[in-house]
Amino acid sequence: MEFVHKSVLFDEAIKALDLNKNKIIVDGTAGGGGHSGEIAKTAKRVISIDQDPDAIEVLNERLGNKENVTIVHDNYSNIKNILGDNAMSFLNAMKDAAAFSRISDDFVNDSGFRHSLLRDNSADTALNLGRYVLAGFDPDERVNFTYKTRLAFSSDYDFNIKFDFGRINQEDNFNRVIAIIGENGVGKTSLLYNLAKSIANQQKECFSPHHPFLQRL
Question: Is 122 exposed, middle or buried (0-12, 13-18, 19+ CB in 10 A)?
Answer without folding.
Answer: exposed
